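Exercise: predict the fold of this chain.
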Amino acid sequence: MVVLTSFPKLNEDKKRLKKHYQQTPRPIGVFLIRNNLNDKVFLAAGLDLPGLINRHKFQLTNGSHPNKQLQADWNESGSHNFAFEIVDELSPRAGEEVDYRAEVAFLETLWLDKLKPFGERGYNVPKLSREEKLRRIAAKTRDES
C-alpha cells in the first residue's frame, strides 16, 4: 500500500502562481458587443476587461443579460453573429496614484458621445445627467407626498 503525503512544492507553486496572478494588472478600458447583422453595438467599460467581457458572454449565453433587447437579438440571431471588440485600453502606470475608475468613466463617456449607441444605432440606454436624476427624485418625492 502506498501512502501519499502532502506535496509542499506543489502547494508553494500554486500559492506563488495565485499571488502572481493577483498582482498582475488587469487590462482597463472600453469594449463593444457588435451585432454583425444590423451593426448595432452595446458599449461597456471597466477595470478588468477580460472579466467584464467574460461576464457579458456568460450572461448572454445563459439568457440573463440585463439588456433585454441585446439578449433578444442574441437569442434570435445566435452568438456567431456577434463580435466582442476592445476599442480603447488604458495601461496601468507603475508608481503613480491614478483614479482608474474616473479615467475609465471618462473614456466610456467619450465613446458613448462618439458612437451614440442608442435607439436604432445600439443597445445602450442614454445615461441621465446629474440634474435629470435630481429632477426625477424631486418629482418622485412630490408624488409620494
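Check your answer against the key: Helices lie at 8-23, 49-61, 68-77, 100-115, 130-144.
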